[in-house]
Write a structure and sequence with these properties.
Elements lengths: L3 E5 L3 H13 L3 E5 L2 H10 L4 E5 L7 H10 L8 E5 L4 H9 L4 E4 L4 H15 L8 E3 L2 E4 L4 E4 L2 E3 L3 H12 L7 H9 L7 H16 L7 E4 L3 E4 L4 H4 L1
Parallel strand pairs: 1-2, 1-3, 3-4, 4-5
Antiparallel strand pairs: 6-7, 7-8, 8-9, 10-11
Helix pairs in contact: 1-5, 6-7, 6-8, 7-8
Length: 234
């Protein structure tokens, strides 16, 4: 699953350079030249990371980062600030606002890609493409195959994404709203009960190989993937 990066940068040459290098590194790149345009794009979809220039016309990158952190829909999106400023104060201000990292211009494309990957590994492990295994259930993100006891489990695309997310965040409980944000990417047009429908389908598929206990319902809270028995965790 290629990570979607929203690049907010007003200088066309730099925006182009960044987009070129990120595409080469396998990312899907979305571009905006100011905060207002970026905000409109965010209404349509949620990226996996925002690469945000500090010095933008009208609204500054810092103001925009503040808005992203305030809104419940966008507050968990990782942000990397890009800036020509090198003062320590600015760096502190950038991190204060909740940026995950900070890159000073000029930067090498290789460093930029490495920093993005590091932030995504930390904040969105479901994008790392490593094979996951838990209690005999094996998921390969590259081939999109899920196996157990030598059998392939047929899953729809949403069930696959749901399982992938829950396996990369095992033992943690997620509410329906959180799952919509993280798995569907955006919950503007989807209702909470959609999550239940897909969980039910996923559980049914896991039942076929006797692994349904891995997918647990936490009463009043949400769902969790865990190899520990439910009794032990409650
Ligand atoms: Ca700029």
């Amino acid at each position: 699953m290629a990570a979607k990066i929203l690049v907010v940068e007003d200088e066309p040459a730099i925006q182009e350079l960044i987009a070129f290098n990120l595409k080469n590194a396998g990312f899907v790149v979305l571009r905006a030249e100011n905060a207002e345009q970026a905000m409109q794009m965010l209404n349509e979809m949620l990226p996996d990371l925002v690469l945000l220039d500090w010095m933008l016309p009208q609204m500054s990158g810092i103001e925009f980062a503040n808005i992203l952190r305030r809104e419940s829909r966008t507050k968990t999106i990782p942000i990397i600030m890009l800036t020509a400023r090198i003062e320590e104060n600015d760096k502190i201000q950038g991190l204060d606002v909740g940026a995950d990292d900070y890159i000073t211009k000029p930067f090498s494309p290789r460093e930029l890609v490495a920093r993005i990957k590091a932030v995504l590994r930390r904040r969105a492990p479901e994008l790392s493409e490593e094979i996951l295994e838990s209690d005999g259930l094996r998921l390969d993100p590259t081939t999109r195959r899920v196996m157990a006891q030598g059998c392939e489990i047929a899953l729809g695309p949403t069930e696959f994404r749901l399982l992938y997310f829950l396996m990369t965040h095992a033992d943690r409980v997620y509410t329906r709203g959180q799952l919509l944000d993280r798995v569907w990417g955006d919950h503007v047009f989807v209702e909470d009960r959609t999550v239940d429908v897909h969980i039910r389908r996923l559980r049914k598929a896991l039942e076929g190989v006797g692994k349904e206990k891995l997918l647990q319902t936490v009463r009043g809270s949400g769902y969790r993937f865990s190899a520990e028995s439910e009794e032990k965790l409650v």
